[in-house]
Design brief:
Blueprint (H helix, E strand, L loop, with lengths): L7 E3 L7 H10 L4 E3 L4 H6 L5 H13 L4 E3 L7 H7 L4 E5 L3 H12 L5 H7 L8 H18 L7 E4 L7 H8 L12 H6 L1
Parallel strand pairs: 1-3, 1-4, 2-3, 4-5
């Protein structure tokens, strides 16, 4: 767990590099949870307040993890910001047309209960404009919420070449693991 109690929230849409950021954070020694695990099962039970149920699911994971990534985290950034003041938010993004193509290629036309909740439609085909509108609207909400707070929000476009430098510069020393020290016992004996 992070010593300062802060958390890292990866609030990009799926297919924007969220898994790559998870891999990078894990390489830095952080414990990362995918936000979507358990979401479909929860939504199939048809909770009376699906938004509150999803939020509670993700916040529960944060009790035992340093970071959370992927959908539906991008719909709860305001609640996370309030629940964990001083935390870091990483918003992975890519051009909307590139995102739509990647989404279509990866998910095809299967739509999980989580995606149906996020986009308000049952299938991707025929609803591309709806997906585009949600992506753009949610992106604007995220950017407006963190306007003037560059210390709290990092926007990463991995497709455009962003990566380690931006991530490590943003996280700073509080989020980095201790530098490894090897052969220290031998050095003391010499």
């Amino acid at each position: 767990m992070l010593a300062n109690g802060n958390k890292i929230f990866c609030i990009g849409f799926q297919k924007t590099g969220t898994s790559s950021v998870e891999t990078a954070l894990t390489a830095l020694g952080l414990k990362v949870a995918p936000a979507y695990v358990g979401a479909n099962r929860l939504l199939k039970r048809r909770p009376s307040e699906p938004r509150a149920a999803l939020q509670a699911l993700v916040l529960e994971k944060m009790k035992t993890h340093d970071a959370i990534q992927d959908a539906p985290a991008n719909f709860f950034f305001e609640e996370f910001d309030q629940a964990y003041p001083g935390s870091k938010f990483i918003f992975t993004t890519r051009p909307v047309d590139s995102w739509l193509t990647s989404y279509r290629n990866f998910f095809r036309d299967t739509n999980s209960p989580l995606h149906a909740w996020m986009y308000g439609v049952e299938t991707f085909s025929g609803n591309e404009d709806r997906f585009r509108d949600v992506y753009i609207s949610q992106t604007n909400k995220i950017l407006e919420h963190f306007a003037g707070r560059p210390q709290d929000l990092l926007t990463l476009d991995l497709q455009n070449g962003d990566g380690w430098y931006e991530l490590v510069s943003f996280l700073g020393p509080d989020f980095l693991p201790d530098f490894p020290k090897v052969n220290t016992a031998k050095a003391k004996a010499d």
